[in-house]
């Protein structure tokens, strides 16, 4: 076998190997997904209540319900693929998933690597207290004790908002801060709406959010440049907000209506 022929065969062999080990073709279009009959959706499964594993060892939670609703809108089966915080965007970029419904906060940095839909969920930080207490401005917290998890986002937000004479009490974690509120050790606590949902389960109708201090919306992510898919997802989100399906999912998992900063986002 001469040199030229050996090189040609080597190139062909390399091509075969590359094909064999390449990721599955990425469905960049709506029709591509419909033709496949399945939409591969990346989702966190360790971020309750957005992503969990249920008693049958299946993905469940807010994101799972949204993912299944999206698949229904596409007319295909939902194949939920567990991802982690670090690998979720690479999974999308390499075609291991078609979309991400993975509690992905919309940021400018992430938007360089993926295209984000309109918000379908969001996490806010606010001040929570007894339903019969009134707090509409920072001065209403004068002389009050406010529990927070030490060095957390809510610690920073409350410290920046509360008046100088408020007593900010710092605990090791959210659970300790919540316990302090329930036992009457503090008048209020600063925490996310996710944790507030857990308080509502433990003590229904006794506590509510007084003021919102910060917010971050979450979007469904598609591969950069997948314009058609992005338009489909945005229409899906608009419809799910309008017909109440998204609010129903939020009520189910967070015991509260879809927040205004998500519901009214364009």
Explain what you see.
With 266 residues, this protein is α/β, with parallel strands linked by helices. The chain has two domains: 27-123 and 217-263, Periplasmic binding protein-like II (D-Maltodextrin-Binding Protein, domain 2), CATH 3.40.190.10; 124-215, Periplasmic binding protein-like II (D-Maltodextrin-Binding Protein, domain 2, 3-Layer(aba) Sandwich). Helix content is 39%, strand content 26%. It has ten helices and ten strands. The strands form two sheets. The protein has an eight-stranded mixed sheet, sandwiched between helices. The longest helix is centred in the N-terminal third of the chain and has 19 residues, at 3-21. The termini are far apart.
Descriptive key words:
266 residues; alpha/beta; D-Maltodextrin-Binding Protein, domain 2; 2 domains; 8-stranded mixed sheet; two-stranded antiparallel sheet; 10 strands; 26% strand; elongated; disordered N terminus
